[in-house]
Design brief:
Blueprint lengths: L5 H12 L3 H12 L6 H17 L10 H16 L4 H14 L11 H13 L2 H12 L3 E3 H8 L3 H13 L3 E3 L1 H14 L19 E4 L1 H11 L18
C-alpha cells in the first residue's frame, strides 16, 4: 500500500498496538483514503482511533476479514472527512475499533450492523444524536415535554427529530396512541373545549419517545462507548498525517 503519510501511519500503528496485523491494517487503510482538503476531520479521527487501539490492544483480533474492514474503513473515512464534530469523530472511531476486535468481545459488532451504524453517524443530524443520548440516559424512554426542557428545544422540534430517528429504526414514539387518547377525551368533554383552540388541538407533551433495540445498541456501542478515552494519562500522541 502506498500514499502520503503511510510511513507515519505505520509508526502510529506500532506505537499503539505493536505488530498486531488487524490494527495496522485499519490504520493503513485510512492513510490511503485521505486527501489534503479532507485532513482535519480525518486527523482528529486518527488521533481518537489511536487512543482506542492503544488502550484496547489486548482485545484486538490477530486477523480480520480485510474486505469487510476495508469497506467499513472507507465509509468511516468519508464520514470523518465531512465533519469536525467530536460526537461524530468519537462514534466513527468506535465503529473502527469494533471492526478489529476479536470475536467474543461484548462490543464486537457484526459487519452488517457496523455498516449500518457508520451510515447513521454520517446521516443523522447532531440534534437527533443528542436526542438519542438523552432518551438513553432516561432509561430508554422519555416524554416529549421532558426532552423539550432537557434539550432546550420546542416540542415540535423534538417530534421532528424523533421522526428522523424513526426513519432509521433507532427510536419510535407513541404519538398515534397519544392522539387517539386525547381525541377520545375531547369527544367525551365537548362542552368544555376551549373555543379559541381548533376542535382537535393536540398536546404533544405527554407523547413518549422510546429507543428500539437497535437504537439502544447504536447509543451503547457507538455513541457513548469509551467516552473516557480522551483522557490518556498525558502520554503524547504521535503527530498524524
Amino acid at each position: 500500500m502506498g500514499g502520503p503519510g503511510l510511513d507515519l501511519i505505520k509508526v502510529i500503528g506500532k506505537a499503539a498496538i505493536g505488530e498486531i496485523p488487524a490494527g495496522k491494517f485499519v490504520l493503513a487503510l485510512i492513510s490511503e483514503n485521505v486527501s489534503r482538503h479532507q485532513r482535519q476531520g480525518v486527523e482528529s479521527m486518527i488521533n481518537t482511533l489511536f487512543l482506542r487501539l492503544r488502550q484496547h490492544h489486548e482485545r484486538l483480533a490477530e486477523t480480520v476479514d480485510e474486505d469487510e474492514v476495508a469497506e467499513i474503513a472507507h465509509t468511516c473515512v468519508l464520514a470523518a472527512s465531512r465533519t469536525h464534530r467530536q460526537e461524530r469523530i468519537d462514534a466513527i472511531a468506535n465503529i473502527l475499533l469494533s471492526a478489529v476486535l476479536r470475536d467474543g468481545e461484548e462490543d464486537k459488532l457484526e459487519f452488517d450492523e457496523l455498516d449500518f451504524f457508520a451510515r447513521c453517524v454520517e446521516s443523522i443530524s447532531l440534534e437527533a444524536i443528542r436526542l438519542l443520548k438523552a432518551v438513553h440516559e432516561s432509561e430508554m424512554v422519555a416524554s416529549v415535554g421532558f426532552l423539550s426542557d432537557h434539550l432546550g428545544k420546542d416540542e415540535d422540534v423534538v417530534l421532528a427529530l424523533c421522526g428522523e430517528l424513526e426513519r432509521f429504526g433507532l427510536a419510535r414514539s407513541d404519538r398515534d396512541e397519544t392522539i387517539r387518547e386525547q381525541l377520545k377525551q375531547i369527544q367525551n368533554n365537548m362542552d368544555r373545549v376551549d373555543p379559541q383552540l381548533p376542535p382537535y388541538h393536540w398536546n404533544p407533551s405527554s407523547t413518549r419517545i422510546m429507543l428500539t433495540s437497535i437504537g439502544w445498541r447504536f447509543v451503547t456501542f457507538v455513541l457513548t462507548a469509551h467516552e473516557q478515552s480522551h483522557d490518556d494519562g498525558g502520554e503524547e500522541i504521535p503527530e498524524s498525517i
